């Protein structure tokens, strides 16, 4: 039997990158997915690539809005009959040194990553607690562990997701809801491949495994955390970094 047979997952930021790779893996493991993203056209195109409306559903959702996240999680119940897995993945970057970063750039990143994750966690947990079970996966970053230059906003948000995950996990563990986090490192994507070669080489040199990860490698860890294989794990943070910053 597939790991996630018959389960329904909501994935924010699911139209591309890590979110899309997680959706792909979840469907391969028997799940149905609801993708939430700001760009509805891109999200509908992602649904088509994933196999259509029998296995996936697209919703436009701004994760900074509690009302829109509530509509997103309810759509999973309305479309597929339940909510078993929530992946809080949506994110943006607004990199700049502290001297140059604007207050707006700081607030935008905190709102999308940290408030968005809080919205997704609490609203999904409200549904899961009634069902007496569920798995929530929050996507942090190695930047939240070590702090990276030019990312005081991003590092703060991603570190905050770790604290949020641990605190929330304690609140709902007795209700059968598990909450864990993943901290990816250098992941091969359109965004990272647009880096100047000098920066890419510098980051690569920090990785003992001497390569970047594919999004599918993060998706595999998400599938593990979503499945019964991790049934006694909650409040955990799993690094997917190839050994970087250990």
TrEMBL record:
SUPFAM superfamilies in the cross-refs: NAD(P)-binding Rossmann-fold domains
GO molecular function, one term: 3-oxoacyl-[acyl-carrier-protein] reductase (NADPH) activity
Enzyme class: oxidoreductase
EC nos: 1.1.1.100
Keywords from the named record: Oxidoreductase
Domain of life: Bacteria
InterPro entries: KR_dom, NAD(P)-bd_dom_sf, Sc_DH/Rdtase_CS, SDR_fam
Biological processes per GO annotation: fatty acid elongation
Domain Ketoreductase: 7-190
NCBIfam families: PRK05653.1-3 (NF004198), PRK07231.1 (NF005559)
Family label: Belongs to the short-chain dehydrogenases/reductases (SDR) family.
PANTHER family on file: 3-OXOACYL-[ACYL-CARRIER-PROTEIN] REDUCTASE, CHLOROPLASTIC, SHORT-CHAIN DEHYDROGENASES/REDUCTASES FAMILY MEMBER
Protein name per UniProt: 3-oxoacyl-[acyl-carrier protein] reductase
Species for this entry: Mycolicibacterium fluoranthenivorans
